[in-house]
Specification:
This protein has 439 residues and is mostly helical. The chain has 18 helices and no strands. Pfam families: INTS15.
Length: 439
């Protein structure tokens, strides 16, 4: 590798970067064929960091910076490389070698270049790059994944008005990337502040994807071998928890944003207020559609968990996340004054109750109703939520339930021991979801 480096130092920046890609491809292809691949090879890492990421290895050595045109040319070269490389294993290893964080000073340059590459791949529809990015999102700590998601949102929802259609079109070309992108943006936009409310174009795009095909957000889960201990600090297997958070917190979060806008005079004119209210109304309709789609996905999960022999063993909606969501609702309520957000709070709690009910029935949420009652005890009263958490404390084992059956919420009345219990509600796979969402 040292001989290659000396040769590269005599080249211009773009030519050197192209040469590194060429040598890396030969080296990694050879290692794959010999089954002796070492992705973390020091020589490979040093070359790509110095000549592709432009991070100098010597203190007195000035990096060969790429100007804007050269950078665009490099991105095009990389897009074409991944497009033309016929072996998926080589593509994936090459992508991982270049863009997997190493915990060093080159990581900022690495993630910045990745964001530009994936953004270009979205614009020109380079499916191999998007597929590699989907795998990268699955295997990389979430802190880096949300940075990539933020870059794409800024490019297609902020910097280039009207370009959102480019992002929408990848739904029909790379469903794996769409699935992981949704998981990343729900991790990024948690509605904890006005700045972390998803932009309208992003919201409309995500809702249109999921409403058209609710199974989209299950693609990674259905095609990933499930281990006993899922890695900590990475994206969730599905975006279900994040989407539930969006639907439940949206009424209160948008109320808070409207209050902040009025206080700051951002919508000081009558026309501005009407426009702001119109946008919020459109968003509330989208959240209602999203809520329905999430409930449909939860129902589908029961079949898939049973097929994978994970029903009652793997909770895709973690109880700890439910606890956090309840705490966030309480904070929002206190911040906004419960007397002024009664309608919004009712809608949030109705959605929470529906999500909890269907998640428990489908096996996505594993917890006792006693624990659920304890967690929800500080929430304002809500009839539907009270119905959901008022079931028996002791539940039969999920594993003992036949597939397709909903566990009892209420035990038969003790005053009528001779009467048979009501039949358990059965959900038939493939049927349209029989309930309407809370509007």
């Amino acid at each position: 590798m040292s001989d290659i480096r000396h040769s590269l130092l005599r080249r211009d920046a773009l030519s050197a970067a192209k040469e590194v890609l060429y040598h890396l491809d030969i080296y990694l292809s050879s290692q794959l064929q010999n089954a002796s691949l070492s992705v973390g090879d020091k020589g490979c890492t040093d070359l790509l960091e110095e000549f592709i990421l432009q991070v100098p290895k010597e203190r007195n050595c000035q990096p060969k910076r790429l100007n804007s045109l050269q950078e665009l040319q490099l991105l095009e070269i990389m897009c074409n490389y991944f497009q033309e490389q016929s072996k998926d294993s080589v593509r994936q290893v090459m992508f991982s070698t270049i863009f997997s964080p190493q915990g060093n000073k080159a990581d900022d340059s690495r993630i910045t270049l990745l964001g530009k590459l994936v953004s270009m791949a979205v614009a020109v529809c380079r499916v191999p790059v998007l597929e590699c990015a989907a795998t990268w999102l699955q295997r990389t700590p979430a802190v880096y994944c949300v940075r990539l998601a933020r870059t794409l949102v800024e490019d297609y929802c902020s910097l280039l008005p009207g370009s959102i259609h480019m992002l929408k079109q990848i739904f029909s070309t790379s469903s794996r990337f769409c699935c992981q992108f949704i998981t990343a943006v729900t991790a990024l936009y948690d509605l904890s502040s006005d700045d972390l409310i998803p932009p309208n174009d992003l919201l409309e795009t995500v809702v249109s994807w999921i409403f058209e095909d609710p199974r989209l957000i299950l693609i990674i889960f259905l095609n990933t071998p499930i281990t006993a201990n899922l890695p900590i600090g990475f994206l969730e297997l599905t975006s279900i928890t994040g989407l539930i958070r969006w639907c439940v917190k949206a009424p209160l979060a948008y109320k808070r944003r409207k209050k902040s806008s009025l206080a700051n005079g951002a919508t000081g004119t009558k026309m501005g207020k009407e426009n702001a209210l119109g946008v919020d109304n459109d968003c509330h309709t989208l959240y209602s559609k999203l809520h329905l789609s999430v409930l449909q996905v939860l129902i589908l999960l029961q079949v898939h968990l049973t097929e994978k022999n994970l029903f009652g063993r793997l909770g895709l909606v973690l109880f700890d996340h439910v606890v956090s969501l309840v705490e966030e609702i309480n904070r929002l309520s206190e911040e906004l004054n419960p007397l002024n957000v009664a309608q919004e709070m009712e809608l949030s709690l109705d959605r929470l109750a529906q999500a909890l009910q269907v998640a428990m029935a489908s096996g996505a949420l594993l917890c006792s109703r006693e624990n659920l009652r304890t967690v929800c005890s500080r929430l304002p009263h809500n009839n539907l939520l009270q119905l959901v958490i008022s079931g028996p404390v002791q539940q039969p084992s999920h594993a003992a339930l036949p597939p397709g059956f909903y566990p009892h919420i209420h035990t038969p009345p003790l005053a009528y021991p001779g009467l048979p219990a009501h039949p358990v509600q059965t959900f038939i796979p493939g049927m349209t979801f029989p309930y309407r969402p809370i509007h």
